[in-house]
Records
---
Amino acid sequence: MKVVCLSLLCLALPVAADVFTDAELATARELRERALDGSGGFDITEDLTTRIGPRLAGSPADAKAVAWAEAMLKASGFDRVWLEPAMFPTWSREFERVAVKSPVEQAFEALALGYSPATPEGGIEAEVVMLDDMEALETVADDQVDGKIVFIRNRMERARDGSGYGPAVQARARGAIVAAEKGALAVLIRSIGTSTNRFAHTGGMRFDTGVRRLPAAAISNPDADQLERLMELGEPVVVAMEIDAQINETYTSHNVIGEITGAVNPEKIVALGAHLDSWDVGTGALDDGAGVGIIVEAARRIMALDQRPDRSIQVILFAAEETGLWGGRAWAQARRDEIGNYQLAAESDFGAGRIYALSAKVSDPAWPVIEAIHAELEPLGIEMAGRRDASGGPDFIPARPLGLAAVDLHQDGTTYFDYHHTENDTLDKIDPDDMAQNAAAYAVLAWLAAQSPVDFGSGPELLEASQGSE
Amino acid sequence: MKVVCLSLLCLALPVAADVFTDAELATARELRERALDGSGGFDITEDLTTRIGPRLAGSPADAKAVAWAEAMLKASGFDRVWLEPAMFPTWSREFERVAVKSPVEQAFEALALGYSPATPEGGIEAEVVMLDDMEALETVADDQVDGKIVFIRNRMERARDGSGYGPAVQARARGAIVAAEKGALAVLIRSIGTSTNRFAHTGGMRFDTGVRRLPAAAISNPDADQLERLMELGEPVVVAMEIDAQINETYTSHNVIGEITGAVNPEKIVALGAHLDSWDVGTGALDDGAGVGIIVEAARRIMALDQRPDRSIQVILFAAEETGLWGGRAWAQARRDEIGNYQLAAESDFGAGRIYALSAKVSDPAWPVIEAIHAELEPLGIEMAGRRDASGGPDFIPARPLGLAAVDLHQDGTTYFDYHHTENDTLDKIDPDDMAQNAAAYAVLAWLAAQSPVDFGSGPELLEASQGSE
């Protein structure tokens, strides 16, 4: 029995059995329990991080990761597996050295930011100007920073939902642009991360066309503390920075896609995403080896059923997320004219913590379906987030202007930014049980979304609708 | 009233008031409360780790640390401050690179062990033989390791008293000796540390005269896990190791000593120790900047009293502990003929965790004094350890064969080996309140030991007595 309720009363009191058949719900529960018992997702992440390890977009390991992913998806039993090109400018790190020269001599633990240019031969040595945050940088007089190294000391706050990242990361994304305009020689930032362990956190930085590109590096939180203490001694603090890094020609990597072809409406697609690339310093276990394992395991559970779902389910392993959402941009560009077929998108790219909430951006008629799906996720400890909005995850952001319907399964990110973008993002940081809970949630979501009695509303109408929503 | 009880009954039921005067006990309590309220110890550690930072024995920072310590002790108000020479062969690290070459290419986070020789120009590249522990290395057939890189994977267990260190550290101390005898090219060990963060733990290694010196490095725990996984793939694992390090000529550093000169028996000395040097990779906050802060703060509290103690109290900041107890050896050598004057020795060299127990090695007549001192430490949460033995700490070990009476104030070391000998040993790992508890305990110990109605029995007799004790 498939009955769709559209009345307000029905919206307020959704019942899963009003939306899905008993058989569909029984299958969802079976998927949930089997995925919870398994460790298949962790095994995939272990294999990726062991056999490939760090896999910076455009590096030799990128091509190896693509080949690994294609073979792994084929061996997993997808009905179709293919590659789609994604082009981007590569960046590679040779080394970075950041050290205080005066009033004492000490080396800092540092990582150049992604796309930082190299310093001139022999490096830069200059006095440090310490600023609290981007606002301080934007308002400081040019002659205070001209010819100096700007140190932005803002500190990321820890939060379950990772909400401390957005405000703090501005220093990484835009610090070098503003500092360049004011005549600075280079930028140092306190790592955008929550750990007090002595790891620097790398990550992408932006450049505006026509603005001089400044070398930029992050120092670890303990080193940032030390630099603050040295500044407090009251004498000028001189730092030497040397970065060797290259921005190279355009490289073509690939999004790797596996499809479970739908039995009834194969052209309508539920899209699960994760990204295959990682930064170059850790093995990218949490970011985003975990996501790869979670969504592929969810799909494997569905493929193990006796029947194919009504709609297709695609697993998309995106290229070059870290260096600028290049895989996501290529994916969106290729789907400009058929976004209506992409029923619902959800990416796993926030580590391996347990999912605690769901939010969604779908058309109003599809909302009861989301609530019915949520009813099957609730036994996993997943609540309905109090907002009707979702991005789907970083790699689906480029498709957002097309009106892509999306679900966010919010993971507990309390410790995610302790490891994210550091050497310390390694397999041992993952709890296999937490990954299994994630795989169970994605399996239930994908299965029920593929069986939904209504479409989720991707298209320009959704974009307009959501612009007016809460 | 000073009454010393020697009967067994009295030993079983010591009462502080039987040993010390009311005024002495009141002073002990005042010292305890004032030290608990203060942050002077932390401030000293902050100053050392900020102004000097890493201070490897024999490095330029070693001389700066000695000058810092001499000035700091003089400014603290000690009655006498002086330097005593300690000679040792220096070692310096230029770099180390350890990377898997086959079946995959990945770099490991590694640190050369102290006194490791450099590898030949261009490094070593060889197949890895993985062994469980030193016993496995000792029993493996020579032809299994000949021409190969030996990887010893034993794992240190976490414990409050640090008891996991002794068994595990054999791989670091002696692995290269045994591997050299069997024809190996180099040694890799799993770091002797308890953290799953991606820091390698350095530390000293030994060499036997006449045995070929092998290059040796530790890899972090996550990298050791990764190497184990790569071995389990079943193909030969080839690793490249390149170490540049130098063993240089003899260097003379100094033990830096401050004395509170006793008012009654100045020639009798209570000796508090810590070591001034650190490994080269962190700022040596826990190992042993904390110890420096703790014992100097304890002495400052005593110097702030209206009166000098009966006996002298010396604070000894030892040189070159990490690279072979060189300061401790020089100190013991210089006191061979006057060990009887050294009443009681206690070193703080186990981080900044709270003290939870006391043990002591003293003559039987002095035991009631130890129990009376313990009664004043009990309010700090310090219990009497169930054994009548103590080393006094690493730098007093060379004086142990002379029969040095000693107290061990056992610190909670549950997390100590997460940071010890790593880049991550930085100031933020210290809780100032825990340091204050330590300073309070050392202040009470030093004060009451200096007022003790009996000597503690240092000398050959103590050595013999203790050999027969439990």
---
Amino acid sequence: MKYQTKYEELIRKCAVSADLSGALALMGWDQETNMPKGASERRASQMATLAATIHEYNLKEIYPLVKDLASVWDELESVARLNVLELKRELDKAQKLPTEFVSLMTKTSSETQFAWEKAYKANNYAEFAPYLEKMFVLKKQEADYYGYTTSPYDALLDSYEQGLTSSMVTTVFEQMKPELKQIIEKVQQSEPISTDFLHQKIDKEKQWQFTMKVLEDMGFDFSRGRQDISTHPFTTSFSMEDVRVTTRVDEFDLSNALYSSIHEGGHALYEQGLLTTNYGLPSGQACSLAVHESQSRIWENNIGRSLPFIEYYFIDLQQLFPDNLKGKDPLQVFEAFNVVKPSFIRTSADEVTYHFHILTRFEVEREIMENRLKVKDLSEFWNAKMKEYLNLDVKEDNQGALQDVHWSMGAIGYFPTYSLGSFYAAQFFAKANQSIPDLNNQIKAGQFLHFKKWLNESIHVHGKLYPSEVLCQLVTGEQLNVNYFLSYIKEKLSVVYGWT
Amino acid sequence: MKYQTKYEELIRKCAVSADLSGALALMGWDQETNMPKGASERRASQMATLAATIHEYNLKEIYPLVKDLASVWDELESVARLNVLELKRELDKAQKLPTEFVSLMTKTSSETQFAWEKAYKANNYAEFAPYLEKMFVLKKQEADYYGYTTSPYDALLDSYEQGLTSSMVTTVFEQMKPELKQIIEKVQQSEPISTDFLHQKIDKEKQWQFTMKVLEDMGFDFSRGRQDISTHPFTTSFSMEDVRVTTRVDEFDLSNALYSSIHEGGHALYEQGLLTTNYGLPSGQACSLAVHESQSRIWENNIGRSLPFIEYYFIDLQQLFPDNLKGKDPLQVFEAFNVVKPSFIRTSADEVTYHFHILTRFEVEREIMENRLKVKDLSEFWNAKMKEYLNLDVKEDNQGALQDVHWSMGAIGYFPTYSLGSFYAAQFFAKANQSIPDLNNQIKAGQFLHFKKWLNESIHVHGKLYPSEVLCQLVTGEQLNVNYFLSYIKEKLSVVYGWT
């Protein structure tokens, strides 16, 4: 084939770019797990250098090839075609940012993170505001570089989730808001559920061992990955052959380590499930942040917080933590793991109230990006939203607008993918149950490999060949439909709270 | 100053190069400490990509600047001048290798290492010989690219130790050989020393804790470094702010962990002692491999195996390992740690017989590079040397020519720096004792910081501004003089073996 040689050169160069990205990701992993404190500043500049090197390599070496190939894309075979078009889309976007702007953003991001850490410790949003203000100014500039039709916010959303717009997110949340509010009200009228036994002292080493067992059961391949401890759990990958998760172990909260590991394990199975032959190409990368999040949440919530899952692990749990589970049955543990209760911190929020945390962040970002809110008034706006949605009075900035690191890093437009992840997860899970009618029994028997294979074959194998909407259509036969999530959560909570 | 701006640009670009090298070094560290097995192959290619990227950056971005500045070097101030001239020397050399050759070497090195691992497991040199043969062919080609006056081997030696030649190493060893032979004979006529108590079972965790304490005492800065476990102990550095050592803990050999940690700790203090303001420049890099090795050995042997050192730690040792040290006194421990006894394995050889291991490797390399020995006959040649020098009959390839990984990686011309390191160490140590007349008492009191400061100020601070010979002259007032080593070792062994 005429363009075969050029396409092969593209494959080779994409592998080079992926090699460099692997090094960058390793530096990030190491920073959170092993790096001595004194190296923070230097590491930040080393990572900035590598990021700039990758950016330059992609634009100088890969982009021209991609443009050449894109001009004859209909002569390529189908996968090559999709790879070329997706690369073109990404690089068309990447080349819009001037190199000096990329460097400035990297530098500002480091500074803003330091400022956030300081303000977080001081529990004082006002200290952070001027730095965040600068970051938003840059993000608006970034949106201008990218260009947009309706809202500058759209340009940022699209960086995390191809094609996502402010109005699309608004529509989804408009659908969800009354439904979720209603669920919360119903919960508040129900008999409260005791979770005290989850919060007795639990040996850390035993918790760790248990998370390792669960990861193994899920099908996490330890010959191509590992688990470590870090302050904030995350998943990273340096190639399909080296995918790493971290977890945190809280001596007084069993669910923290367990669900952190399952969540990150879900992300990791996605990365391990990409085909190594597609290394460096879109076909060898995860589809989008929302779909990635769907993979972590489908394991964490749809599987991990299900009754059959608890039933299967109940014997292990009892053996490992006999004091905590004395006199309990699987149903009580299931209930405790699924309690819905408004709280201040997003990362420990339940499956229902969680989405109000995201909605709040989405509205903050939208209002600022569309110039209806000033950064200095962000905290007040936040607190009003928490009151409106969850009837909570935020009294500390740490419990409010300062709690997440993301904005300081410049991750604006990122949060909505978390909610979308839950909604995709529910929709995929419904489909999985259709495809594996026996799934519930398999879970109850601790057999997850059939389900993992279904994810591998239905979702992972496609990489980034399609945008998430198309992938969703391909997997489930319809576009994202939030009713799957609503049915799933209502059904589960009916059992938890005994609704009839 | 006229060329100031250009020099500042050079500093900036050298920092970029160092950032990339830091990432490469991190990949190497991770490979030995954390990497899952399944990632070996991919990691090798990722590291090759990064190495090629650095090579290219140095030649494309740094070399032209360096050539410009070198043409007006007498207009620069003195440190800038030395930095520019040293960079020119290195890059003049680096640019002699065609990029395809560098890639071929990287690839061959990976393959040869795999072959070595296989042959090592099979305990069969013959399996390895054809691969090593290919490696030597490439190394001869590399020597041709570099060019040389007398021996192709010189071109390789110079890559590890600027200016070192085959005839210089031969001269040094000719001086040492009869002296060392005589010492070994004298030891063999002396009363044997018991070392059994070192080899009783010793709790691994306790050993680890002890090594951490000793590193701390030496002045290793844990806010800018860390210690981990690996199969083969090593030191690596990603910047002066992130210097890492590894050790290995043998349940039945106390000295293994202890002296591995001290040895690597010595290397690490050198890296931590380089000035951060010189990051990326020759002035911020270690002088040479031999001088680096002098820093590990001065701590391991001159300090760590001295009687005052053992006296200081004796109480700790007794508390940590009461069963092993029951009824022992510091002198007995000192004696046991300094026993001289011919043995097969280089890495566990004593301070005297060690140099015959190096001499053997040096002669192997020289004879092959100068076409007097065939790679297929290497093992026989080796065994004959072991018989001649140490009166040992090598019966297993693992205990002989297959024991070290270095050749498979292409590190040919590297081993002599190990012996030179010992000789420099003794010479530096003699000088340190002159400068700090109270040094022995300080060691006995566990006060190492004065000594560390002396190393920092006499050696580390200069980085790579001078070749090792010049540095040696600067520090000790004379060129490398092996008599310092001979006096040191004879004096110590006189105490150990009660020679009068």
---
Amino acid sequence: MAKVKKQPRPKAETPKGFRDYFGAEVTQRAEMLRTIAGVYHRYGFDALESSAVETVEALGKFLPDVDRPNEGVFAWQEAEDEGKGDWLALRYDMTAPLARVYAQHRNDLPTPYRRYTMGPVWRNEKPGPGRFRQFYQCDADTVGTSSMAADAEICAMLADTLEAVGIARGDYLIRVNNRKVLNGVLEAAGIDGDATRDAVLRTIDKFDKVGEAGVRELLGQGRLDASGAYIDGVGLSPAQAAPVLAFLTSKGAAAGETLANLRAAVGESDFGAEGVAELQAIADLLEAQGYGPDRIVIDPSVVRGLGYYTGPVFEAELTFEILDEKGRTRQFGSVAGGGRYDDLVKRFTGQAVPATGISIGVDRLLAALHAKGRISAEARGPVVVTVMDRDRMADYQAMVAELRLAGLRAEGYLGNPKNFGTPLTYADKRHSPAAVIEGADEKARGVVQIKDLILGAEIAAQATLEEWQENPSQIEVPRAELVARVREIVERGQS
Amino acid sequence: MAKVKKQPRPKAETPKGFRDYFGAEVTQRAEMLRTIAGVYHRYGFDALESSAVETVEALGKFLPDVDRPNEGVFAWQEAEDEGKGDWLALRYDMTAPLARVYAQHRNDLPTPYRRYTMGPVWRNEKPGPGRFRQFYQCDADTVGTSSMAADAEICAMLADTLEAVGIARGDYLIRVNNRKVLNGVLEAAGIDGDATRDAVLRTIDKFDKVGEAGVRELLGQGRLDASGAYIDGVGLSPAQAAPVLAFLTSKGAAAGETLANLRAAVGESDFGAEGVAELQAIADLLEAQGYGPDRIVIDPSVVRGLGYYTGPVFEAELTFEILDEKGRTRQFGSVAGGGRYDDLVKRFTGQAVPATGISIGVDRLLAALHAKGRISAEARGPVVVTVMDRDRMADYQAMVAELRLAGLRAEGYLGNPKNFGTPLTYADKRHSPAAVIEGADEKARGVVQIKDLILGAEIAAQATLEEWQENPSQIEVPRAELVARVREIVERGQS
């Protein structure tokens, strides 16, 4: 007789590049998003939650940054209409959906439209260590105004947000640059032709890595890199390279000095002068609002995003040092970026609408707070009421209800208590602050035992055997004092 | 010369069956989810956010309810491996992912594992009015215990949750039934064979609609329905139908009476007796915790979900009346449901793991609070500082910064003020409580004008022309009093 072929069991795994988040990972992120939303709200921004699924047509074919692959979305075709259904896709960022939302609802939305949004986005990219295909974005944008006051406001809001979530003043810096200044510099250098322009932009992007001397070589004839390979240069003359280098190194001690250097770097370029004037306007507005250079600075060495944005560009960096995987100290680095982009909805309506905004890397920011010890990885578990006598479950659950009613996190142990140790092992696994025990003897005497598990763990780690046997982490209290005494232990554990 | 063919513009629309959520829709839901999470946390439940994307293999081929189509997910194939990539899909509920998570992480998770989760799910179904293909679910489940204390706890938690979000005691009722009792009744009625069984289950499902007499006819020979069509019956004898009808109508004035009626209905069935004992245990536990029949009742007429769950079944109904679209009063109805299901992870591990849980319909619950007037549809907008002189933008933004620093929601008007009316129209659209005006004259005199827009709207609606012209809704105050006077207006508007 032929054997019946067994259906193979499905694998219990997330798809490659996806992960689950547990306990404190979820609640700490939720708490951070709530804090950020509070600041955004105070700044007059309104919440938006657009659908996670968009038509591929509305998303456009390309991801916004030149760095990213041209494909990279999760997409599928609607089954309807005999294979002629719309192609749908998961959003890959919050900006493309904002463009669609603004174009769709523009008659109902106020102008300017300040909106914030927070939620997951999806990228169909090759996953890697720490690189996931679903992650959170938290964006704020102002649509429909070309006023630099909108850009300055975004920078001020970003500073307030970082402080609100727990990054101390002095531990972050928001740096501001402007694409128009760069364009002016390119004009002053007499660089035209898209190919040369792109090559110069790519070289500028390497400033952080290779420094002034390296960029000078790469803008000229080329450079021998650290590995010994020769990298061809862009082929600019030293005279052409000079404004570019002046731009990259124009940061002075104060905004006035930086702006004067930039004015020199853009030479006769009208476009460049416009960019410098924009930076001046932002600096003036921020000064009037009390945001000094300890929080927000004009910094022409900010190059990230310069290829994508069309005016001011912002970047928030955390300036404290952490240890990397190899034990070397390095600056924590960027946690947010943004800038001004024109033509937000032009694809849809034919009409150019200016916009400016910021995107916060929520998971990076959480990692920073962990690195600074501002939030702990482990959340405190519930008080566990052990079950000594299964027939008296109702009594135990009544104790649990009493504790909960008093606002304490509590639960009865609902596992199968083969022996007394099981519920205590469980309480350990949950990082419970306390366990409550009421056996037949305690019941008869009108008392309960309370084990202080935090103190117990400390004693276990430090105490001698004798001290351990005295067991001061367990107390016997009258049943009527249950809630009050448990509260003392829980509150002591929180402090 | 041939004309250059223009690329057609993309349509600015969500895909069919999807929608966007704006302002208060987003923040009110977030606030509700936060409140619910607070209750769940207090009960010892831990947060989980599983990935939105699962392998089709892990989700399984079928949606959980028999009512739903067998297909119905948004799925696509990974591009890798020459067309042999995994099929991935968006989760259609939170239970299938819980099974995968528990199977994947069972060695690291505590047992029992109490978890809650909240977020969007996606259904590839035909959209209709009020029926969307992306919506929120908010679930809590206890995995790994067969104790009825877990089921009772879920019911108590649901009651606490409804009260925490603003449903008053007396405005809701949680009803509890048990699948095993039904199975016992079918056994007592001598019904076997899957086809007959399924037909009886379908008939029971119609109890709410056709009542006892209707079910009696449908269990027997059949019934002429309201439209005049004859519906064939299941063909049971009156003796066979009797236990089913006794089951459906067994609800008494108190739990004891109901349970006695059920004991009679299940006759000699051991399975039925087990179900009645489970209901008895739940009733006893809830009584000990102080959850009386004004909040949670044993009610055998709960039939929804009986086909899917394997033990206790819960349903939360809001009992107050609302007007439907046609102006008729009806009970608001169900906002949450759940129950006990075995074999949660058996598909993955071969091992049966019992679980019990609840799912809250967050959007239904929000609709209920709107219907009761507990939350208002319009959120208050920011205080708007108007821009009278564009060269003095820094002054205006400094005022805004002062208001924000004082915790007031505020913004400068950043639109293009062609005339004075524009920023006030904007403030109206934002439902702003106040507008601040400082022209050259006010600046010279060291004062500002504050328009109370809430009072202004009231006056505009009620006042005579003369009263309107006196314009008491606008006050002039010293610049130094700006924050204090604006705060008064904002706080008056909130009360």
